[in-house]
Design a protein that fits this description.
Layout lengths: L11 H31 L7 H28 L2 H24 L5 H30 L9
Helix pairs in contact: 1-2, 1-4, 2-3, 3-4
Length: 147
């Protein structure tokens, strides 16, 4: 007889999304850097705007990879506090994606497409993260999580 009490609560589609989001994010930040190099070389930016936008992109990259790492750890360890951190980190990441879709100084079509794909990953992962929180919250306690 199978013991369902020890059945893992992790969500495989979320883990798959996190893996592909990690791959896509690496590609995205490389492409975004090349786009910023092009914009800085060929477009006339208003005074002191390209440096803060690119610094924000670098901060966004750190935030995004940390968010993916925390989401992966939360899913594997089944810790509620890690899930809450993942959800909390998803909010500024989603807002940053929206900024780079519509609010940066010069928006290319490539910016819109690459950021829309990234935003799709982030929103889908946030939805799965919320479902993961509900699933972990309803589960009976099974031991101490690392977070």
């Amino acid at each position: 007889m199978i013991n369902l009490a020890n059945k893992p609560l992790t969500i495989l589609p979320l883990q798959t999304l996190l893996y592909f989001d990690w791959l896509y994010s690496a590609w995205y930040f490389a492409v975004a850097t090349m786009i910023y190099i092009y914009k800085g070389s060929y477009l006339i930016y208003p005074y002191n705007t390209i440096a803060p936008e690119y610094a924000g992109l670098c901060f966004f990259a750190v935030l995004q990879f940390f968010r993916i790492f925390v989401g992966s750890v939360a899913n594997k360890s089944e810790g509620i506090s890690a899930v809450l951190w993942f959800l909390a980190l998803s909010i500024p990441a989603i807002l940053a994606s929206i900024f780079y879709i519509a609010l940066q100084t010069f928006v290319f079509n490539a910016d819109v497409v690459t950021n829309a794909i990234l935003l799709f990953f982030q929103v889908t992962e946030a939805i799965f993260g919320f479902l993961m929180f509900i699933k972990f919250k309803k589960a009976p306690p099974r031991g101490k999580a690392p977070f």
